[in-house]
Design a protein that fits this description.
- 3% of the residues lie in helices and 51% in strands.
- The longest helix is centred in the first third of the chain and has 4 residues, at 24-27.
- The protein is mainly β.
- The mean pLDDT is 94.
- It has 1 helix and 11 strands; from the N terminus they run βββαββββββββ.
Length: 124
């Protein structure tokens, strides 16, 4: 239902754009998000897009550098990552928030549909 791609190896200061292709029903969820997980660390929130409200949310660590967006015609959510740092190295996952969920969109518990992940490696 979700397929993430676009990761790769990039030097610090560089850019990457991740894509997440979603099936129709999943793409219609109100909130789509991106999370990441570095080796030995817990999965953490990166960004989310609430298209019902037209709102975007970002982790403090990526604010001003990453941009989440969606293309309704392509049923795809993007994560544009600029000014990448070595600490951005992780596996990045896209996710769709549970329907009728009223809790925080920053928590992994809010999401019940996950893509397979795409590796992003930033060299110093």
């Amino acid at each position: 239902q979700l397929q993430a791609f676009g990761g790769g190896l990039v030097q610090a200061g560089g850019s990457l754009r991740l894509s997440c292709a979603a099936s129709g029903r999943t793409f219609r969820r109100s909130v789509m998000g991106w999370f990441r997980q570095a080796p030995g660390k817990e999965r953490e929130f990166v960004a989310a897009f609430n298209w019902f409200a037209g709102s975007t949310y970002y982790a403090d660590s990526v604010k001003g550098r990453f941009t989440i967006s969606r293309d309704n015609a392509k049923s795809t959510v993007y994560l544009q990552m600029n000014s990448l740092k070595p600490e951005d190295t992780a596996i990045y996952y896209c996710a769709a928030r549970r329907e009728y969920y009223s809790g925080s969109s920053y928590s992994t518990d809010a999401y019940d549909s996950w893509g397979q992940g795409t590796q992003v490696t930033v060299s110093s």
